[in-house]
C-alpha cells in the first residue's frame, strides 16, 4: 500500500472513531495535520500570527463539521479546502465589523479584571490594534464570555494568550500532549466565540 493510501486509510479510521464517540481521535487528527495546514496557510498569508489563527480556525470548523463529513473526498482534501477558504477570507470579518468608536486595547477587560484586552482576546485577526475600531459592547462581550468559559478552556487561553507559553510549555504544565494542547485551545476559542453569541460567528 502506498504512503498516500495508508494516510487515507488512517484518516478514515480516525473519522470513524470520532463519529463513534472517541473524541481523542480528533486530537490525533490535529497532531497529524497541524504542521501541514500551518505551512500551507503561512505560504498564503506570509504572516506567522495570521497563519496560526487560521490554522486553529480550520480545526474548529473541521471539529464542527466532522460529524456530517461523508467521505466523498479525502479528509485531508476537505481540511485543506476549509483552511484555504479561511485564509482567503482572512480580513473580511474584522473589516465588516469596524465601528465608529475607537477602543484602546490597553484598557482592562472589565471593572474586576485588570488584564488588558489585547492580552485576553486573540488580536492576530485584526489589522493592527491601532487601526481597529470596535465598540464598548463588543469589549464587554469578550470579558463576560471569558468568565463563562469552563475551567479547562479559561486556563488554557490564559496560558497561551496571557502568559505567552509555547505549546510545549503548556503541555508540560498540564501534563498533556502537544496535540491535545492545540485541540483544547481550538475548542476553547470556539467556546469563547459561541458564548459571545451570533455577533462573533
TrEMBL record:
Q: What InterPro entries does this protein map onto?
A: RNA_pol_sigma-70-like, RNA_pol_sigma-70_dom, RNA_pol_sigma70_r2, RNA_pol_sigma70_r4_t2, RNA_pol_sigma_r2, RNA_pol_sigma_r3/r4-like, WH-like_DNA-bd_sf
**UniProt GO BP:** DNA-templated transcription initiation
Q: Which Pfam families match?
A: Sigma70_r2, Sigma70_r4_2
Q: Which UniProt keywords apply?
A: DNA-binding, Sigma factor, Transcription, Transcription regulation
Q: Which GO terms describe its molecular function?
A: DNA binding; sigma factor activity
* Sections of the chain in a coiled coil: none
Q: Where is the RNA polymerase sigma-70 region domain?
A: 29-91
User: To which protein family does this belong?
Assistant: Belongs to the sigma-70 factor family. ECF subfamily.
| Name of this chain's protein | RNA polymerase subunit sigma-24
Q: Which species?
A: Ereboglobus luteus
Organism lineage reads as: Bacteria, Pseudomonadati, Verrucomicrobiota, Opitutia, Opitutales
Amino acid at each position: 500500500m502506498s504512503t498516500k493510501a495508508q494516510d487515507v486509510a488512517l484518516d478514515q479510521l480516525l473519522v470513524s472513531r470520532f463519529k463513534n464517540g472517541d473524541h481523542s481521535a480528533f486530537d490525533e487528527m490535529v497532531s497529524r495535520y497541524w504542521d501541514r495546514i500551518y505551512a500551507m496557510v503561512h505560504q498564503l498569508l506570509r504572516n506567522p500570527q495570521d497563519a496560526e489563527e487560521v490554522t486553529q480556525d480550520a480545526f474548529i470548523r473541521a471539529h464542527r463539521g466532522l460529524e456530517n463529513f461523508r467521505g466523498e473526498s479525502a479528509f485531508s482534501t476537505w481540511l485543506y479546502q476549509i483552511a484555504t477558504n479561511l485564509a482567503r477570507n482572512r480580513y473580511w470579518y474584522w473589516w465588516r465589523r469596524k465601528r465608529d468608536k475607537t477602543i484602546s486595547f490597553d484598557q482592562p477587560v472589565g471593572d474586576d479584571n485588570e488584564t488588558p484586552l489585547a492580552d485576553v482576546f486573540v488580536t492576530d485577526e485584526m489589522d493592527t490594534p491601532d487601526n481597529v475600531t470596535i465598540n464598548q459592547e463588543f469589549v464587554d462581550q469578550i470579558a463576560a464570555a471569558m468568565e463563562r468559559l469552563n475551567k479547562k478552556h479559561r486556563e488554557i487561553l490564559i496560558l497561551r494568550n496571557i502568559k505567552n507559553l509555547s505549546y510545549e510549555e503548556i503541555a508540560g504544565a498540564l501534563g498533556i500532549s502537544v496535540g491535545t494542547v492545540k485541540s483544547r485551545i481550538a475548542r476553547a476559542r470556539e467556546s469563547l466565540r459561541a458564548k459571545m453569541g451570533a455577533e462573533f460567528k
